[in-house]
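As noted in the main text, all predictions were made from sequence alone. Below is one such record, for Nitroreductase.
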Amino acid sequence: MDDFMTLAKARYSVRKYKDTPIEDDKLDKIIEAGIIAPTAHNEQPWRCYVLKSPEALEKINGLTRCAFHAPVVLMFTYNKDEQWKNPLEEGVTAGQEDVSIVATHMMLEAWELGIGSCWVNFFPNTQTEKAFNLPENERVVLLMPMGYAQDGVHAAHLHNENRSRDELVKEL
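Prediction:
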């Protein structure tokens, strides 16, 4: 891609994937994009579970229809004990935001490499944590199925519809 805006505008959610596996070198680049992502106070509380074994994929496809039978599903979590906590206000933490930043970096790097993905929140979080025996202090935030898009896949009909700048941005 020529620049970030071109990349950001071109990317869309892919919900139908080829059976083609993602090459290890490309998966490594996607993971590296997450590793270099900024986090609050650089605490890096995030974890990414790469679900690609037949057993892991069967399990996640059994928990949600929104894994879309992708050849890889990234499961993002954060460690509640490692997340930054705002000292100025009780209960304000950054774990979920940190995961979101990391996942966005990885999603965009995947697209740059020709690999589609979809940000998924439609799954039973607690049940998923138990099914994958996650540590008690980890909270799953999102799933990201990814792989090569099936031929003919295109952006959803609402993909390019945005609210106006005046509605979204307020100068104070």
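The first strand starts at residue 46 and ends at 51. The two ends are 35 Å apart (CA to CA). These features were considered when defining construct boundaries for the mutagenesis experiments described in Section 2.9.
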